[in-house]
Design a protein that fits this description.
Length: about 130
């Protein structure tokens, strides 16, 4: 499955029935992580959590897909796609997972080292500034 770069957040939630409607609560930290705003309309996709025979045969791949796609100490090359409220660079990697990169400029390509990984966001330091065409 291809995940579009416009993905703002990804999380697991239970669906509740409310009369003739169904409700999915979006955790506040997910709204703060992305550029989501209350009262605006967003496209929502739902995926079943029960694994199919094909998913079960994928084994460790599906386990890895459920956790953060980065690890502490990992190095990567990323593009800074946004600037956060605190002025830090924001990069998105697999599945729209957010990596906060202080001292990075919008549109800049940088090599980073991840130093803190949380369930919905990671923090990294710039190790090298890269040419835009690399």
């Amino acid at each position: 499955m291809e995940i579009p770069p416009q993905l703002q957040c990804l999380f697991s939630a239970e669906i509740e029935e409310d009369g003739e409607s169904f409700v999915v609560d979006v955790p506040e930290n997910e709204v703060q992580t992305g550029d989501l705003e209350a009262g605006k309309t967003y496209r929502v996709a739902l995926f079943a959590t029960e694994s199919s025979p094909q998913q079960r045969s994928a084994g460790s791949q599906s386990t890895r897909a459920q956790g953060p796609p980065v690890e502490e100490g990992e190095t990567r090359r990323v593009e800074i796609e946004d600037i956060g409220e605190q002025g830090d660079g924001v990069a998105r990697v697999e599945r729209g997972y957010v990596v906060i990169v202080p001292d990075a400029e919008l549109g800049e390509r940088v090599a980073i080292e991840v130093h803190d990984v949380q369930s919905n966001v990671a923090f990294a330091e710039v190790t090298e500034r890269l040419p835009l065409n690399e």
